[in-house]
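Checked the freezer inventory, then went back to the computational side. Two predictions to log before the end of the day. The first one is the construct we discussed on Monday; recording sequence and tokens without edits.
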Amino acid sequence: MNILHLSAQKPDSTGSGVYLHETVSALARAGHDQAVIAGIAPEDNPAFDKGVLFKPVRFETSDLPFPVVGMSNVMPYRATRYCDLTPAMTEQFKAAFTTALDDVLAQFTPDLIICHHLYLACSVIAHRIAQLKEVDSRLSDCVTCGLSHSTDIRQMLQIPLERDFIRSGVNLLDRVYALHEVQATEIEQVYGVPSERIRVVGTGYDANEFHAVPGMRKSGTAKLIFVGKICRSKGVESLLKALANLVEEIPDAELKLVGGYSDRQEYDELVNLSESLHLPAHFAGRLSQDDLVRSYNEADVFVLPSFYEGLPLVVVEALACGCKAVVSDLPGLRPWLEANIVGDAVTLVEMPRMHDVDSPYEEDLPLFEKRLASALAQALKAPAASCDTSKASWDALAMRLL
């Protein structure tokens, strides 16, 4: 088929960018012709598989005089928050993505369109395709789909930007993809999409790169690894406080925190907190894929005490590399793991109550940190575990999408 992918964000950064990029690669391996429309900064030059047509929507230009818009309020690169878009900026955004679509359609006729995030750019494309189908017979059989990464739902709940336009555009889609069953219900509630048009597809990982390497996991010091943005909403503060209570249980252990940050003050506060621990905590920053695979393979336990995620890809990567995992019992995660991961290497920790989508009640955190500490102690003492993660590969995901 001819498949067109769309994202308003950078197609090679953040979880949703990796999702898009890896899905394109998997579908290229399956023999499909593809095009990509995505937002990028002036200095960006993302690389796709040979033969993929890339149409950038370049921000910080005369037509779009502001940075790439990010689905999260804090992005790992220079970005504009959706809540800061003025009516004029919104119209510039709509015009830029409409023009990009028209330019692609002049040389590429899609059979399938996959829009990442059920938000503004998705609705622009859905409305435009509906218009063009009335006058362009080439598009009469084109199927238009949208995929939620959870941050779109959060934006819909938190800010009033173009809600009616977005909802109407999402309801023009032929199919909506969800990461898990809980999210499928949220899509139905927030956008009004009938349940029969929603399918759960999950996430994927690079099975060729992320796998266990014999001999890399050494006995001796117990190694913990966290991978994600270094911030409170990812549970880093709670992780550090939980480890502070494990002096006797894990006297000989170390923690490696992999990931970037957006708020320097918050990051410095977390680094300062880590210095009071009885065990060494190494802030490694962002790592190359090779270094990340090596870090997973050297670790005993992967930990992600996050308060909000779509479906965290890092959990699957860590399991594929042979880690045991301690993870927040995030909405939708448990049934997805049970359906797609064969093995018993994951401990899910009951979450605190949330007063916002990613903000826990402060009074619930001490008990959450106590549960987290207990789960970490048990995981570190447990024997090595292995999982079959093949159903969660990018190639398997691509087939579910099709």
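The second is the one RB wanted added to the comparison set:
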Amino acid sequence: MYGWRARIGKVSPSRGDSFVYEFYHMVPKGVVLVMHIVGLDNLTTEEFNAAYLQYMDAARALARVGVDVICLGGAPLFQLKGLGSDLEMIQEVEKQTGIPALTSATAVKEAMLFLKMKKLAIVSPYTDEVNQRNALWYQNLGFDVLKIKGVGITNNSQISRLPFYVPYQLARETFLETPGVDGIFIDCARWATMEVIEKLEQDLGVPVVASTQAMIWSALRKANVRENVQGYGRLMQG
């Protein structure tokens, strides 16, 4: 049976194409992904709110087919609702399903604390409006966001079509412009990032957290799969 070590359930606001591809590169053998797609087309407040309302039903659907962990993607949805909304969702999912849960937002926070990141440079494919909420979220969690830059994309499907080197170039540019940064966060699980995490760490000398990487790391820990994974940054080796 596939998933004999762990079955990871994932609620994704979008198609999840990049996440699925990177998941199977990063996880150890014996771990399988079970997806539930909500279907977010445009990165607007209206569509964020509509997607959010479907999350509990999606989590219950994953529980019915049988998973060991439920991962709720889409940090911008929780950032729109406000600080603590992710923890409330986790609590409700765990109460209704009895299955350990996480969100992309909680996974990223835990990953940055694990790597002792404090002064951040953040890059994303998003617009300034979404990035402002993003920066405020992590500031309210106690991090210093020294700079945040985005690509300005509003159509969700365009994110996965960006060349894989775009986050590398944007992260490097932002880091070099910002003295004092001790960690880089690459936001958005639909952005191809696995090729650049370790390269950035080698070239810039600071830890790097990416949304997909953080969610996988957190989900594996909750599923008690702790195999050291090489090639995708310091986090996956921890």
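For RB: The longest strand covers residues 6-12. DSSP finds ten helices and eight strands in the chain. Let me know if you want it refolded.
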